[in-house]
Amino acid sequence: MATTLAKAADGTEAATHAARIEHVSKSFAGPAGQQLVLDDISLDVAPGEFVTLLGASGCGKSTLLNLVAGLDEPSGGTITTDGRPALMFQEHALFPWLTAGKNIELALKLRGVPKNERRGRAEELLELVRLKGAHGKRVHELSGGMRQRVAMARALAQESRLLLMDEPFAALDAITRDVLHDELTRIWHETELSVLFVTHNVREAVRLAQRVVLLSSRPGRVARQWTIDIPQPRRIEDAAVAELSVEITEELRGEIRRHGQH
After folding, report:
1. Around 159, how many Cα atoms within 13 Å sit in the side-chain half-sphere?
2. Maximum pairwise Cα distance, the chain
């Protein structure tokens, strides 16, 4: 995984993009030979940009995210990122034998943060995700939404400029998901992170993103993109969100019909 830099106005090194995906393809071995999952994907994520990847189940969204994270290698093409990305999954993946704070401190330890600084930094991150005072709580004491907040704090502990999120709120109830949409939007604004967010929920994509990228059904290709100019903060029930969601849903249905998936 390479990092591309350019000179900023003050002479320091600045990233020209958070992620650049150039003509990326990915195949996996199957019973009938190589199965093409992603085909010639090209996509840039600008510094500070929030992009959602949307598509039918099995279109390769999570595969693409894993490639950007460096968890797998593309079969063709190149991916460059501004440093090492942080990754947040649908499941919180917290260590149940550690407290909320110690889960975050472990990420800080792996990043090389001195031991005497970890506790304070972990508490700062818990406060950022609105879990002040939760450092000593065990995972089983936390609700699903709280666990995802801790997982978000742990991802932020890596101090990456690019946050990759693979359907992180899909398992939550509607109200908790709505609250965490607000929290993620706030944190994104406060930290100026770049976010690449995978979802199959059209309204979630429109509510959160500056840009929505629709992938076709397998093999995944960039079918269409939308720039979202609806002012933030947005609500899932806002008329503008609903109207654009209808348009994108029709495009998604068309992609599914074209590829014979149900």
Report:
1. 9
2. 57
Give the count of domains, the chain: 2
SS3 178: helix
pLDDT in tens, 159-191: 899 999 999 998 889 999 999 999 999 999 999
CA distances (Å), origin 167, targets 31, 32, 40: 29, 30, 23
Name the strand (E) or helix (H) holding 205: helix 202-208
* CATH number, domain containing residue 248: 3.40.50.300
Q: H helices within 22-134, ranges in order?
A: 61-69, 100-110, 115-128
151 lies in the same domain as 98: yes
Q: Which domain holds residue 148?
A: 94-159
Between CA 25 and CA 40 the distance in angstroms is 5
> Based on the domain organization, do 18 and 119 belong to the same domain?
no
Looking at residue 233, its amino acid is P
Distance of alpha carbon 37 from alpha carbon 236, whole angstroms: 31
CA separation for the pair 63, 7 (Å, rounded): 32
Specify whether 60 is located in the same domain as 119.
no
C-alpha to C-alpha distance for 125 and 135, rounded to whole angstroms = 10
Q: Are residues 74 and 177 in the same domain?
A: yes
Q: Does pLDDT of 32 surpass 90?
A: no
Phi then psi for 100, rounded to 5 degrees? -55, -50
- 197/177 same-domain check: yes
Number of Cβ within 10 Å of residue 192's Cβ equals: 9
- Beta strands at 19-30 and 76-81: parallel, antiparallel or unpaired: antiparallel
Q: Minimum mean pLDDT among 10-14, 41-45, 159-163, 243-247: which range?
A: 10-14
End-to-end Cα, the chain, rounded Å? 36
